Amino acid sequence: MVSESVVASVALVSVTLSFPCFVYGAYYIIETEPVTWDVLVHHLKFVVTGLALTTVPMVFWMAPRLPDQLGGLSAVHAYLGLQAYALLLFGGTGIVRIFRAKREHDLYNDYDEDLLLDEIGGEQMSHWRSRLRIGVFGYVIFWMLAYVVGAARYVLRYLV
């Protein structure tokens, strides 16, 4: 059987490797104009990979062990992580509306520089874009806080 410290190390490495995926995915989508279907798919490859590298260890190793350890840094780590995922879901409600508006006007395949996103999405588009920004930035902030607490827990539990 694999020791708990080895599994914890693999989980830490996996979550650590997700951060460069998030950073590159964000950089790519911000710096690339226009956002065509190919650009969106390339961006999502990195974001989904980052989410998988973070979520798989959480679901299969961290969450099942949480009830036995709930207290102190473990509770803080879990709370911050849950806030990160809650904000990701919040942002997802915005991206669905933005995606639908761009698909309806075929802006992923036939980009029109003169057509503004606020015009095609109706009067609520700025609201949905705000939700996306709040969700993404909130996720990143809480993800980083959860990562720092999780890394501290790892050091205190397995290295000290």
In short:
This protein has helices at 4-31, 37-69, 73-104, 117-120, 125-159. It is mostly helical and 160 residues long.
Taken in chain order, the helices and strands follow as HHHHH
Structural class: mainly alpha
Q: What is the general shape?
A: elongated
Mean pLDDT: 89
Strand content: under 5%
Number of helices: 5
Q: Care to count the β-strands?
A: 0
Distance between the termini: 23 Å
The oligomeric state is: single chain
Whole-angstrom Rg: 19 Å
Largest sheet: none
What share of the residues lie within helices? over 70%
Low-pLDDT residue intervals, each spanning 5 or more residues: none
Q: What are the salient characteristics of this protein?
A:
mainly alpha; elongated; 0% strand; 160 residues; 5 helices
List the helices and strands and how they pair.
Layout (H helix, E strand, L loop, with lengths): L3 H28 L5 H33 L3 H32 L12 H4 L4 H35 L1
Structure, explained:
- The chain contains five helices and no strands.
- The protein is mainly alpha-helical.
